[in-house]
Amino acid sequence: MNPYLRMFLIGLLVAVLALIRMYEYQYFYDPFMYFFERAFQEQQEYHFTNLMFFNVFLRFLLNTLVSLTMLYVAFKNFGIIKFAAVIYAIFFIVLFPLFIYLMQNVTPEDYLAAFYVRRFLAHPVLILILLPAFYYYRLSQAEKG
């Protein structure tokens, strides 16, 4: 693939991630955003329904799909995509139940932990780690070969 086309597609996928973030209030009903903006700061008790957690899952899924597509465009290697998918799955399996537990069982003084766990789930943080890591891996493999 032409390197300029590859860079354009990666830039386009970064723009998609930005649009997901930019329109989160309009298209993703997420009471957690409002909670962390207001109720959290006032340390109010707040009880969440299980349906509210679906939105965090949906955003994680969308960000994961766009991020895996970005990795595919960058490296054209299904081994990297499979490995990254496993990392995303482990990330989700560990953090999502932790987030649910924190939001339903922790006192208002400890909501900050839930805020950061939610941030890792709702925002595409892993791509910021995986893209340079796989690039470095590819460079190190090229030097050996």
Model description:
It is a single chain. With 145 residues, this protein is mainly α. It has one domain (3-144). It has helices at 3-22, 24-27, 31-39, 52-75, 78-105, 111-122, 126-144. It is elongated, with a radius of gyration of 18 Å. The model has no long low-confidence stretch (mean pLDDT 87).
* Shape designation: elongated
Number of helices: 7
Query: How many distinct domains?
Result: 1
Strand content is under 5%
Biggest sheet record? none
The radius of gyration computed from the alpha-carbon positions, rounded to a whole number of angstroms, is: 18 Å
Write the layout of secondary structure elements.
Layout: H1 3-22, H2 24-27, H3 31-39, H4 52-75, H5 78-105, H6 111-122, H7 126-144
Helix pairs in contact: 1-4, 4-5, 4-7, 5-6
Give a quick precis of the structure:
By secondary structure, this protein is mainly alpha-helical. It contains seven helices and no strands.
Features:
mainly alpha; 80% helix; 145 residues; single chain; elongated
